[in-house]
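Researcher: We plan to redesign the surface later, but first we want a full-length starting point. Tokens attached.
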């Protein structure tokens, strides 16, 4: 039977098993919830850096909340997909986080 064939030698099986021991306690929180916790803990810490620009967790959270509220006003609901077409910028993580905070999922578009 195919299941009887041993492809991986025993010493390599041990290595594979030890590397795959990755069980960790499950955190039952969303990314926006985890981000909010971090923003409360370290509001003035750097959250984003791009070139000379730097946003703190507070700044990023404020911008993400603005985006989330605008999306909700436009009718975005839980499970909706929001298309995102933008270049790399400080606004991109804020937009993605804002979409999640509004309950949506994002779909990146390639310009």
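Model: Full-length starting sequence:
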């Amino acid at each position: 039977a195919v299941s009887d064939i041993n492809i991986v030698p025993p010493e390599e099986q041990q290595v594979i098993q030890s590397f795959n021991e990755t069980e960790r306690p499950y955190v039952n929180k969303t990314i926006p919830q985890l981000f909010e916790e971090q923003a409360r803990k370290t509001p003035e810490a750097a959250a984003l850096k791009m070139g000379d620009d730097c946003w703190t967790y507070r700044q990023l959270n404020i911008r993400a909340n603005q985006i989330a509220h605008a999306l909700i006003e436009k009718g975005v609901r839980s499970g909706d997909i929001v298309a995102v077409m933008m270049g790399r910028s400080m606004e991109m993580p804020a937009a993605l986080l804002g979409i999640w905070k509004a309950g949506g999922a994002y779909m990146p578009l390639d310009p």
